[in-house]
Design a protein that fits this description.
This protein is mainly alpha-helical and 513 residues long. The protein has a single domain, classed as Amino acid/polyamine transporter I (Up-down Bundle), CATH 1.20.1740. The protein has 21 helices and no strands. Helix 6 packs across helix 18, helix 6 packs across helix 21 and helix 9 crosses helix 10. The radius of gyration is 22 Å and the shape is globular. The C terminus is likely disordered. The structure holds 4-fluoro-L-phenylalanine (PFF). 4-fluoro-L-phenylalanine binds next to helix 1, helix 2, helix 6, helix 12 and helix 16.
């Protein structure tokens, strides 16, 4: 068997932009500002910032260091730490794989919206067609979604198929700056609309009394994990494509701040527009609008409704609608890339398979599984409950504990420091060994035992992301599908762990075949 040549990013900038691309996703746009609004406005920034500093950045740094130090994907990393820990890596990989199957379906809706809003711009602007009707027609027409899904997967497949520097890096170098430029346009439009200040006040005026509620803190910690894509899969693999002796800690700080800054910034567009709607409808609170303020509802109903009433007539409405959905699509696309790449990398590491065939196979299988969500969008929430929220918490808890106690963070820190722009001190060890696992354990404990189990764990990612379609809070009790997915995932992880390694595990560098 031949040898698989190691792949690397061409420039550090490519690595950082790809990591930012993974982090910035649907969650930044339709979830962050909604969480902020409902969790005490500006006051929510306090738990959010604390979560960022005590678990977000340290775990991001940890994942970068693990990936780079062991030069491979999560199963390889965990196996090198200790043979029988390989399964943790596979759980993470299978988890991210399942996330991809429905994340792509949401992107398919976004894609369809892009061209539907072009085709129906006049009707939307004149009010003969409402945005919610349009969305209703869309989700009930699976064939349309199927088409959007095929296009979304095709573009994603092509990107990952081309490889790290030719595909992922090039796509990120274009998509992320473009995403920012388009977002700046939306924010400027948002904050200059009549009534924008009222909306922004609702977004940010602080209510410190909310901070005494545990669920506010859970929201903050859960959002930090999801938004930074911290889940022992994409970032480990991305960092493995940086050469040894690279700067890593500062890259993690940059990624974290670019991501969280984007969320905060984009909130001004969203809430400026919500304020504008409030002034049009002459209501004094966002709740009185009676439309969704987060999640898929915000993206597919509220924003298009508001866009269609922008000053300037149908063509202006069409242009801003288009920009909004392009932002959403670009954000999601760069995240989806980072969902497929680690699945390929894990299979490559263990079985010695090549990129092109594997990426093609993984894409086709993801597309086929995604049909479930195309034809039954109600399945998204219960599946996401397992793989997109609950699992993140305990996988990351194990990751931090394993790195902290089995491997020794000090070793990693000493590995990174000579090349680091920002040196890691002993604080890093404490955060990884104690702060991260303990806060994850508290979230799980609080979620599963204390306040009505599912409802609280659910609120980890509840806001817009979990509740992609339904109004937040409409789900009570654990859906049987959530449990089935959990059991299936664990069985699959056991099976794939049981297979023989077809590659040699080297101390450094990519596994040779
Ligand atoms: N960080 C992405 C978001 O906020 O939308 C979601 C995500 C991407 C989760 C990639 C997991 C992942 F592997």
């Amino acid at each position: 068997m031949g040898e698989i040549a190691a792949e690397y990013w061409k420039r550090r900038k490519g690595f950082i932009l790809a990591a930012i691309g993974s982090a910035i996703g649907l969650g930044n746009i339709w979830r962050f500002s909604w969480l902020t609004y409902r969790n005490g406005g500006g006051a929510f920034l306090i738990p959010y910032f604390i979560a960022l500093l005590i678990v977000g950045v340290p775990l991001l740094i940890l994942e970068f260091l693990l990936g780079n130090y062991f030069a491979g994907s999560s199963p390889k990393v965990f196996r090198k730490i200790r043979d029988n820990l390989e399964i943790i890596g596979w759980i993470a990989i299978l988890d991210v794989f399942i996330i991809g199957t429905y994340y792509a379906v949401v992107l398919a809706w976004v894609f369809d919206y892009i061209w539907l809003s072009i085709i129906y711009a006049p009707q939307l602007a004149s009010g003969t067609l409402s945005a919610s009707r349009l969305f209703g027609n869309l989700v009930t027409n699976p064939w349309l979604v199927l088409l959007g899904l095929a296009v979304t997967w095709f573009i994603t497949w092509y990107t990952v198929f081309r490889g790290v520097s030719e595909g992922i890096e090039k796509a990120s170098l274009v998509a992320i700056p473009l995403l920012w430029i388009l977002s700046i346009i939306l924010v400027i439009r948002g904050v200059t609309l009549p009534g924008a200040d009222t909306g922004i006040n609702w977004y940010l005026s602080p209510d410190f009394s909310k901070l005494t509620s545990g669920s506010v803190w859970i929201d903050a910690f859960g959002q930090i994990l999801f938004t930074l894509s911290i889940m022992a899969a994409p970032l480990i693999v991305y960092a493995s494509y940086m050469p040894k002796k690279s700067e890593l800690p500062n890259s993690a700080w940059i990624t974290a701040f670019a991501n969280c800054g984007f969320s905060f910034f984009f909130g001004f567009a969203t809430w400026g527009i919500i304020g504008y709607l409030m002034s049009l409808k002459n209501v004094t609170s966002p709740a009185a609008l009676n439309i969704p303020l987060g999640g898929g509802g915000l993206a597919f109903i509220t924003i298009p409704t508001a866009m269609s009433q922008l000053p300037g007539g149908p063509s202006v409405a069409a242009v801003f609608g288009l920009i909004f959905f392009l932002v959403l699509w670009l954000a999601g696309y760069t995240s989806l890339i980072s969902i497929i790449e680690p699945v390929y990398a894990a299979l490559r590491d263990k079985f010695g398979v090549t990129r092109r065939q594997t990426v093609t196979a993984v894409t086709i299988i993801s597309f086929i599984i995604g049909l479930i969500f195309v034809f039954d969008p109600d399945m998204i929430d219960p599946v996401d409950f397992t793989v997109g929220s609950t699992n993140l918490v305990w996988i990351v808890m194990l990751e931090a504990a394993v790195a902290g106690f089995y491997l020794g963070v000090k070793k990693l820190r000493e590995y990174a420091n000579p090349y680091a722009e920002l040196k890691l001190g002993a604080w890093f060890d404490y955060l990884i060994k104690y702060a991260a696992p303990i806060s994850m354990a508290v979230i799980l404990f609080y979620g599963l035992w204390y306040a009505k189990a599912q409802v609280v764990v659910y609120s980890i990612v509840q806001a817009g992301k979990t509740v992609m379609i339904n109004a937040p809070g409409t789900v009570n009790g654990v859906h049987p599908v959530s449990l089935i997915v959990m059991v299936a995932l664990l069985i699959a992880a056991i099976l794939v762990t049981g297979f023989k390694w077809r590659t040699k595990i080297e101390e450094t560098g990519i596994a040779e075949v």
